[in-house]
Design brief:
The chain is α/β, with parallel strands linked by helices. It has 17 helices and 13 strands. It folds into two domains: 212 residues, Rossmann fold (3-Layer(aba) Sandwich), CATH 3.40.50; 167 residues, Rossmann fold, CATH 3.40.50. α4 runs antiparallel to α5 and α4 runs antiparallel to α6. The relative contact order is 0.12.
Length: 414
């Protein structure tokens, strides 16, 4: 491994580290560590559902909201003057933002609290001699980060995903202007951000890179009497699991049997179980509950296809590019999803997978039937899918892209 004489310390900030539902954040950190960089993990909150087997990461992660609010406010106000000119610069930004948001809104007063929390973050960045701050999600963590950057002088970048821009996009243009770069996971997101006024020169696309090894098929593709489909994600509206259950009901008269395995948990579980009973398909649907990251690969290898029926929820939130699709593609498992957000950039219809209209159980059933009816189609799709994931969504490819936006970080010769 090549080393640098003065290691660059890169701080990573996210809502929850290490969160079970955001493994891509710490996988990205581990990737940079593998390249020889020192990483300082910082979380806004301690995770509600921490990732399994990450005790060491938990022990070295700093938490910003680990004290009672009055203590955070008291210590923040007390420490703010030590940043001198940086404190005045950050305060000027805050006052401008408060005026822009309107003093009558609750979110405005939350912004003031995040400014105080930024004092703790700025202190960490200075005391640990960090060269750069990289922030996952463009909502609360980025609000804290932009003030901490002004206080400390440490530059920052933002990685935007989905909910953070579609549903919680407070001050997005200002965040982008203050950041070195606002990178996002898809061309779809980049175009959306440009449409709402984020400067074009502040935007870039960096994928959520994955490091899954490409695994060739372990059994021949053939027509069968019984197929096992799987879907994985939180049981929430935007995952479209209700649509998938309805599509399974549409396929009950086909000359094969389908078993659907639903991995994940969430607030809609009881409602979805009831829907399966009403549609008379409960006998072929299994709710697996949450799975460890390690168990997912084994579960996936027993599937004939992974199906994600992603859709837009009533608040406008939708998935970005689900990592589970990338994992399935690298495992040589055929994939089906929907034409929404950045998914068509990963699943190129009829080349790397199949796409259905979002929120359309009949079209989804049609695409599932097409896939299961043709062993030749399945075999062709998985070959192209594995190559596409490796070349466009590979971890090292995207880490190199990301590092070009870290101006004070010394790049390692490779």
């Amino acid at each position: 491994m090549n080393l640098i004489s003065q290691p660059s310390i890169i701080a990573y900030l996210a809502p929850e580290i290490p969160a079970l539902s955001a493994t891509f954040v710490y996988e990205e950190m581990f990737g940079l560590q593998d390249l020889g960089y020192s990483i300082l993990p910082i979380t806004v909150h301690n995770p509600t559902n921490p990732a399994y087997g990450q005790d060491q990461l938990i022990s070295r992660t700093f938490c910003l909201y680990d004290q009672a609010p009055f203590i955070i406010v008291f210590t923040g106000v007390f420490r703010l003057p030590i940043f001198g000119v940086g404190a005045f610069k950050a305060l000027r930004l805050l006052l401008s933002d408060l005026s822009r948001c309107g003093l009558h809104r609750l979110v405005t007063w939350k912004l003031a609290y995040q400014f105080i929390a930024a004092v703790k973050l700025a202190s960490l960045l200075k005391s640990k001699n960090c060269s750069h701050l990289h922030v996952h999600f463009a909502h609360v963590p980025s609000q804290i980060a932009m003030y901490a950057s002004a206080m400390s002088g440490v530059p920052f970048t933002i990685m935007a995903h989905a909910n953070d821009i579609f549903e919680r996009g407070l001050l997005l243009r200002k965040k982008a202007e203050r950041a070195v770069k606002l990178v996002t996971i898809s061309e779809f997101n980049r175009a959306y951000l440009e449409r709402i006024g984020v400067p074009k020169d502040k935007l870039a696309v960096v994928r959520c890179g994955v490091s899954f090894p490409i695994v060739p098929p372990d059994r021949p593709f053939e027509k069968k009497a019984h197929y096992r489909l799987g879907t994985l994600g939180r049981l929430v509206e935007k995952k479209g699991i209700d649509v998938l259950i309805r599509s399974i009901a549409e396929l009950q008269n086909r000359p094969y049997e389908i078993e659907l395995s639903i991995a994940g948990d969430g607030p809609l579980r009881e409602e979805l179980e009831a829907l399966a009973r009403v549609l008379n398909v409960a006998q072929c649907i299994k709710f697996e509950g949450s799975m460890t990251h390690g168990a997912v690969a084994k579960w996936m290898r027993g599937l004939d296809a992974v199906v994600l029926a992603c859709k837009k929820d009533k608040n406008g939130d939708m998935d970005g590019i689900p990592v589970v699709l990338m994992e399935a593609m690298s495992q040589s498992v055929p994939v089906i999803s929907t034409r929404i957000s950045g998914i068509p950039e990963l699943i190129i219809h009829e080349l790397t997978g199949l796409l259905a209209k979002p929120d359309d159980c009949q079209d989804l059933a049609f695409q599932i039937d097409r896939l299961l009816d043709s062993a030749e189609l399945r075999e062709r799709l998985v070959i192209e899918a594995a190559e596409h994931v490796k070349s466009e969504f590979g971890r090292n490819v995207n880490l190199k892209r990301l590092l070009t936006y870290f101006p004070k970080v010394m790049l390692l010769p490779r």
